[in-house]
Amino acid sequence: xxxxxxxxxxxxxxxxxxxxxxxxxxxxxxxxxxxxxxxxxxxxxxxxxxxxxxxxxxxxxxxxxxxxxxxxxxxxxxxxxxxxxxxxxxxxxxxxxxxxxxxxxxxxxxxxxxxxxxxxxxxxxxxxxxxxxxxxxxxxxxxxxxxxxxxxxxxxxxxxxxxxxxxxxxxxxxxxxxxxxxxxxxxxxxxxxxxxxxxxxxxxxxxxxxxxxxxxxxxxxxxxxxxxxxxxxxxxxxxxxxxxxxxxxxxxxxxxxxxxxxxxxxxxxxxxxxxxxxxxxxxxxxxxxxxxxxxxxxxxxxxxxxxxxxxxxxxxxxxxxxxxxxxxxxxxxxxxx
Length: 337
Hints:
Elements (H helix, E strand, L loop, with lengths): L3 E3 L8 H9 L4 E8 H5 L3 H4 L11 E6 L3 H12 L5 E6 L4 H4 L11 H14 L4 E6 L32 H11 L5 E4 L13 H8 L8 E4 L5 H11 L3 E4 L9 H6 L7 H18 L4 H14 L10 H9 L3 H15 L1
């Protein structure tokens, strides 16, 4: 199977989780989002996100921001951490990012997006990649007949050219800026994470004869069968897996047909390992580490569909010590395995 990447996710892809995903076959991992402005201001909690290790290579550090100069400065700082790639976030849809003109917010200001891409590429020697979405809203999913390309008004009297889509034009423009790889989430910003990801437009980008950089597909790839289908049908160079990995870092191994934990007991052992690794990452703060890893065992497929599980789930999510968490997990294994 072609490469599988762990998507960058805030409060998720910290070193503890990246290490587990790498062990189970992730071909590349990405850090959490790094705020360019906070990085330039040397905010400790932000600079800490630059922590990477040789064991997780190849690794990308992702940055986001809305001003070219700050993004270029941040990229120079990131380069000192020696990642294999510097990734630009042009796709985060959440209000606190997109609403301030960063992440997916730049889909409404393509000239500035391209200015940021050029500034970052020119600021560093490390390969610069990017991640984006299909567009801002459903209007960007309508084919256009613009012979002059992205965001260019139709000239008076000009004949209608070949049909194209916003994301097809955008991919070409980012490639021209020096972006070496492009990941595309198959939703618009307005969709957030609702509905189904549209892989047909990702395929349009990949099959564009003017595109020569690798195209990475992202969105709703949750099973080995779906991963194979996306590679075969759309021809992408790699697939980026995000939310489906919550509480299931072994998903990469399953997709590749590699050895993976199969029994509930073995999977719970991995979840326990993650809890301990999160505590260590949080400075051996037991409560903080449990809170940090809670979303993983809360969303883990290991516990989905179990009969009469509601009260046990509530107890698991309220537990604040390793002893409590592990005791409940052991009880689950005894009862349901």
